[in-house]
Design a protein that fits this description.
This protein has helices spanning 7-10, 24-40, 48-67, 73-78, 105-110, 114-129, 132-138, 145-158, 162-168, 171-180, 185-199, 207-221, 229-233, 238-245, 261-273, 278-286, 298-314, 318-331, 336-352, 356-361, 369-380, 391-406, 411-423, 427-440, 444-459, 464-490, and strands at residues 44-45, 82-86, 93-96, 100-104. With 491 residues, the protein is mainly α. Helix 25 (444-459) packs antiparallel against helix 26 (464-490). The radius of gyration is 24 Å and the shape is globular.
Amino acid sequence: MGVEASAAAQLGLPTLGDGSDLTLGDERRLGNNIIRQLYRDPDYIDDAVLDEYVQSLWQALLAAARARGELSPELDERFAWQVLLGRDRTVNAFALPGGYLGVHLGLMGVVGSRDELASVLAHELSHVTQRHIGRLIASQGRQTPLMLGAMVLGALAASKNPAAAQALMVGGQALLVQNQLNFSRDMEREADRIGYGLMAPAGFSPQGFVAMFDKLQQANRLNDNGSWPYLRSHPLTSQRVADMQSRQLPNGNTAMPQPSFEDAMLAARARVLSNPGVDVWRQWLAEPQGGAFAALAPVRQSAVLYAAVLAASQLREPAAARALLARLQTLVRSDAPAQRQTQLLVAEVELAAGQAEAALHTMPTSTGRPELLVRTRALLQTPRAHSAADAQIAQVLGQLQTRVTTHPQDATAWQLLASVWQAQGQTLRAVRAEAESHAARYDYAAAVDRFRAGQELARKSSAPADFVEASIIDTRLRAVQLLLREQAAER
């Protein structure tokens, strides 16, 4: 996910044919090929807590785009509308062909409220709904899918090693990529205008757009040192700034949105999980002990404490983490969303310390994806994972099966389901779930390999339940083999 200047999206990747040949299907397939590489990138992170937070904003914006007619039914059906998180510490977000969106933890760590983060998502969403990416692709003339793949890989390399990028993109190709990094000024202004219009219908303060522009403008004035690649892929022109500053809420209220306890805590989580290093973690761990801590506003205190707890856990210091957690629990005791995040953090700390039963006892009562994944991981560390009669195991199995039925692209849920089935001695079911996990990340070759392994196991089994599972595996294998052939043909 370390993509320089929103590389994949802002590549404006060239078309599979001429402009008239570019279809929604072409763009989606191109996005699938790119996203498969991003899933393999070491920076990719599936953090259930941050993912749920981003998804809550993203889904609200999608609903507003549908209601306002910005997102057509055909585009809605054909594109993926998935968000991936990257551990990269740079401030960046980028749209990809086919309705994919990438968000760096560095961006989540600097926003002051969910409204600011929503403004970035709304802007990127508008690039997609207005087919800006497709229009850039179509404007570039003929290029082969192989060339497209090379250019994407070159852009990925550019974010981490400019020298490697030069080795992958030479001569005219390198110039072509550089020219495609930025949307046109008209496209940027259109994405600003439409994104701003989505904010209030989605339940966010439109002033979040203005607040985010203020941050970008300040960073721009300070001569971006490379930590804000979003400024390079979305240049902040004086006209864009003026347009945004002239926008006011209908009632004339220009008050900037304020972060909640949850906003502040999850921004802190993003900063810690962006992996800044041991020295920074130790600084954050010491911060609540400093004399300046007491002078901070309560919301800011919650962020400092949350970062310190998580840093202590990363440093394998559970005693320090527990002591800080007690202070955090007291601070946010009257705020329900913050209480839930704190309870999840308690369970996470105990699980990291090897105290699986303690993690289970401290789980929040809500049933979101973060709770399901933490509860499953904790149960897998206990002897009860092997007991078919255990009520909690039965409950988790049911919840995981419901999850993958309603969200078949949830690769992590599929993988945890495979682990539970394996612990239960249901090897054939485990192999199928592993295959589905690979398929969910578009790794069709690995999925085919696991489905075939499942077929081989089924041939040796006489259990009635395995006969049903074998039929499912046969059907899914044929479907994924077709996808693999299509993928190979595109190369």
